[in-house]
Amino acid sequence: MLKRHLWSILLSALIAGWAVSELIPLHNIDFGAYVEKHATANKAEFDQLLQDSAARVASGQASSQYVALKAIATERKIDLSQYFPDIQLENSLHNVDRRNEILLTELLHRSKAKLQRGLDLAGGVQVTLEVDPRVAARDPSGSQEKLTKAIDIISARVNGLGVAEPLIRQEGDNRIQIEMAGVDPKTNPDLIEEIRAPALLEFRMVHPTLTPSTVAPGEVPPGYEQLTDDEDRDDQSVPQEYFVKRIPEATGNIIANAYRISNSYGQPWVGMAFTAEGRKAFARMTRDIAASGQRSGRTGYLAIVLDGKLVSVASVKQEIDDDQAEIEGTFTDRRALEIADDLNNPLDVPLVPKEQLVVGPSLAADAVSSGLRASVIGTAAVVGFMIVFYSTGGLVAVVTLGINIIIILGFMASIGTTMTLPGLAGIVLTIGMAVDANILIFERMREELAEGKSLAVANQSGYRKALTTILDAHFVQLIICTIMIWLGTGPIKGFGVTLAIGVLSTMFTVLVTAHLIMTEIIHAGWVKKITMRHLLKGIHVDFVKLGRPSAIVSVALVVVGMAFVVYKGDRIKGIDFSGGDEVTLQYGEQLDVAQIRHVADANQIGEVTPTYISAVSGGHELLRIETHEGQSGKLVGALKTAFPQAHLEQVEVSQIGASVGTEIERNALLAVGVSMLTILIYIAFRFEFGFGVGAMCSTLHDILMTIGIFVLTNHQFTAPMVAAILCIAGYSINETVVVFDRIREELKLNPNGSLREVINSAINKVFARTIMTATTTFLAALSLYIFGTGVLRDISFTFLVGIVTSTFSAIFIAAQVFYWWHKGDRKHVEAHADVAPKYDWAGSSKASK
Q1: Mean pLDDT to the nearest integer, 186-202
Q2: Which DSSP string do the residues of 255-322 spell out, in sequence order?
């Protein structure tokens, strides 16, 4: 038996080991201490460099040892890679400064904890960029449109930097505010330049006859400027200089798309696809250069200039009339990708750095600790429930649940996901849903044992009978997660990633690891009996009869909720969706973030987000609070009254735009619509069209009911709330698939029963299991609601409502819609699906051998 399951053992151990390795180091390591430990060559020489860099930091000449070490290496022309032979850099990378930058960035990355905390848990950096006043003055009407476009472009650039869940929004009429979690501006001094680079691409002519080496020093032909090609070249030991025309022949507007390519020798270049007009312009340009070269008897050259810097110089011997062209050069992979990314995201308006601040966590220390405490309590509640009701089986489920959590965290660390409080809530929900699959198997085992089968046979048969249901339920959840990742952004996308990882990990640990452990301990004789307690014993209820009145009451509640949503209008939107005021305060005594929120609640001010900020260069720390529009004055007055000893003084008030724009709102609605359509198609394909209609109706019911109750209880929508509501769709379909799978099975096993009898029989058999799984997930969410604060309570409240509505709809909505769709006629079902009886005698006999 052990030999037969050897592949499962090795695979489980390999994945668990990989996940643990991805989580190390668990905490950030001081950069200086890390590089000192990992420098393996010329140790004494490098230690002296570290001492010099530490002295610069102590004297205030550098903000960090990272910056100091980089500056020293630049000044002394030292290639730092000589001290780290274990780290291989690209052979084509000859520029020492770039080699050092890449090396130090890699070392800094390795010194950081693999699983970084988000802005709400650990703080980060806030950058404010302002439209160049001179540009805004020249085109005041068009600057607003360009600012909106700039926000989209910067979002793409920041996401490309690997920053998880960045917050990017408009501030006032001419500023963009960017918040990035886990970013230290002291060790990322070039970060602002990377974000705000305009990426102005120009195609310019090179002087046909003159070069700086053929004229007197300082002499430049009229209409030209001297530019240096300082890219890494295998065929040059010193940078090449050219006279390049100041006025470009064309700009990056002629490019439709840019991408990294490889030449015939595998060297990285940058490919360009032209627009229709761009092709004509490029053909005209190269024709003129070729003709000029023929007249002078020398080869003509075309200079490619990006943001005023010479990127490449290409020889042009003839007209190039093609849809595509290449920027040639011995680039590194990194540089080729950087150029392509900049060309694909060019800023139309120059942005000037206005301020750069270190931002403290948006959640108080007690809120973070309460969130962690809630997560531990929720997990403990699920663990206790499983052990009490399923004894040894529950203990196996708990062990695999621990492996599941390690794999989830390890996978998140491997892809650079940042842990935020909403993400933590998603993991806790995943814990509640993970045992769902175990309960499915255990309840099937209970039925097999009740028929007198041995424990070994019941284990194999229960697993086999639950397998299809588990795969269907998790696959639909995975599709919904994919939709959230595809159409979502920020917290919505982050939520989708976390849940998708949880779904995949759960399927592996339940279907492979847990099944392996159960099979081995039963086969070894360590377990001869599994005690399974009942939460509910067998029931006999006419659920079809209760369907109509239940649906009427439920739909009435949905209508009332939706009417209230329409009545409240934009008032249901939080700051994420509507924007608001941002007030900055000086203080004499620091206030706790939780105290500020308490004062806001007591004075009915609504949502507030307090953070402490300070300039990167130092100075006094300030308190910055985001509120709904028009509420800042009321909030400041309430805080001064409540905390006179703090000596609060208002410094500035400004308006901030929504961090979730209208496009993201549309995408959220589109995600719901696409999810509904996907559910219909998948369930119709796997089951039958009537099942698909029932699943779609029940899921839509759950989403609308959750939204209605959410608004009726005076909650406001934020980006995490949207993600939580989309998550309810996944949970809802999970519950519905279990009921439908049992109905499909009953149709085959009970060929003579009416459709009403079949549906009632199926629901009565899965009712106890449905309540059990809902209870485990409810316990996890309830602990978050009781012991959590702020956004954690809002998310958990959404889960609590969604769990109740999903359990209700799976029994009273989905199955009833299926019954009504087929007009209560079994023959109508049989005309649209294969429901011929299929018995599992052969499978049972085989398992008993």
Answers
A1: 65
A2: EEEEEEEE-TTS-EEEEEEE-HHHHHHHHHHHHHHHHHHHHHTS-EEEEEEETTEEEEEEEE-S---S
pLDDT digits (tens, 9 = 90+) for 288-334: 888 888 887 788 888 888 777 787 787 788 888 888 877 766 666 76
Report the distance separating Cα 95 and Cα 238, nearest Å. Answer: 10
Are 449 and 390 in contact, with CB atoms under 8 Å apart?
Answer: no
* CA gap 340, 332 in Å, rounded: 12
Looking at the domain 365-569+662-848, which fold is it? Multidrug efflux transporter AcrB transmembrane fold (1.20.1640)
Annotated domain spans of the chain = 29-111, 124-198+354-359, 201-346, 365-569+662-848, 580-656
Homologous superfamily of 580-656:
ACT domain (3.30.70.260)
Mean pLDDT within 267-296: 85
**Best-predicted range by mean pLDDT among 154-163, 176-185, 695-704?**
695-704
Residue 839 has pLDDT above 50, yes or no: no
Cβ atoms of 436 and 773 closer than 8 Å: yes
Contact 723, 750 (CB under 8 A): no
**Nearest residue to 721 (alpha-carbon basis) of 415, 497, 557, 490:** 490
Do residues 93 and 232 touch, judged by C-beta distance below 8 A? yes
Give 54-72 pLDDT, tens digit per residue: 998 888 787 778 888 888 9
Residues found in the chain: 849
User: What CATH code is assigned to 201-346?
Assistant: 3.30.1360.200
Distance CA 445, CA 195 (A): 57
